[in-house]
Amino acid sequence: MKTPQELRRDCRFGRLNGQTAALAPGYQQANIGILPAAMADAFEAFARANPAAFPLLARGRMGDPALPELGDDIDLHRDLPRYRLFRDGHPVGDVSDIAAYWRADLVSFAIGCSLSFEADMVAAGVALRCHGPGLSCAAFDSKLALVPAGPFGGRLVVSMRAIPADQVALARAVTRAHPQSHGEPVHIGDPAAIGVDLSRPIDGIGQTDIRPGEEPVFWACGVSLERAIAHAAPDLAITHAPGHMLITDLPAPAFSPPATARHAQRTDAPQADAIYRNQHRGVLT
After folding, report:
1. DSSP per-residue codes, 166-183
2. Is residue 189 classed as helix, strand or coil in its secondary structure?
């Protein structure tokens, strides 16, 4: 099994250009957002107001593509398999190298990713069909509002995993122990209750089917970065392409779920909003 550093080098030299789900189990993966310095403080305030959506792992120095807190050799110019470019808030294309777009005023942010807890879920005994080479969960737009800060706002993007109904409580317990990777679910059950249409996954990627005996379970997702960028409309912004994360050297927490975590509970839309407000420590608008 390759180390995080080896996988980053594979990205850097064009040997890895696919999704990073199930790679480097036991290590944290990160969503990346890169913004002009003039908006950096406002974005950090926005992230801290929305900790479920944007668990902040690191903030880079202006003009510096390194993130030494996450890995000694990280070069954000090339160390992700794929990036997404935005102009005035609109996506304009995906690339595998952002050196040509880098500016001296750019500031990078690393946000925790739910792919980091999937190996722990499987180790704890959760049957996770979307976990494995070439597989991934799907992400969807929801109607849950993000807490605004400065020019940033928008609606929460959620990731969905189909979980056996008798393992939902276990999945919740495991992921609650991963607050830096979005933490526990924001909703369990009816997708429509939070405005999700399972026929419309973002970028058309990930597993979307729910089999008999399974429940759809939804977590906050770092693709919410794209909606926040659309709201703020900076002249230039760069993110990871959905599913194509930075693999860091940070160990992911290991968790042994309590024996009492046996019974799943559905959440209706008001309950989902209450969970999300509690995770935000703010008020939805």
Report:
1. GGHHHHHHHHHT-GGGT-
2. coil
N residues, the chain: 285
What is the spatial distance between Cα 124 and Cα 111, in angstroms, rounded to a whole number?
24
E-strand spans in the chain? 27-36, 56-59, 83-87, 90-95, 106-112, 138-145, 155-164, 187-188, 214-220, 237-240, 246-251
Q: What is the mean pLDDT of residues 94-109?
A: 98
How far, CA to CA in Å, does 59 sit from each of 27, 30, 34, 142, 208?
Answer: 19, 12, 10, 27, 33
Q: Are 78 and 95 in contact (CB under 8 A)?
A: no
Gap between the Cα atoms of 53 and 175, Å rounded? 14
Q: pTM of the full predicted structure?
A: 0.87
Judging by beta carbons within 10 Å of its beta carbon (0-12, 13-18, 19+), is residue 122 exposed, middle or buried?
middle
C-alpha to C-alpha distance for 44 and 59, rounded to whole angstroms: 8
Distance (Å, whole) CA 254 – CA 174: 9
Q: What is the gyration radius of the CA atoms in the chain, in angstroms?
A: 18
| Residue among 16, 74, 45 nearest 243 (CA) | 16
Domains and CATH numbers, the chain: 4-277 (3.30.2040.10)
Per-residue pLDDT at 135: 76
Distance CA 239, CA 177 (A): 26
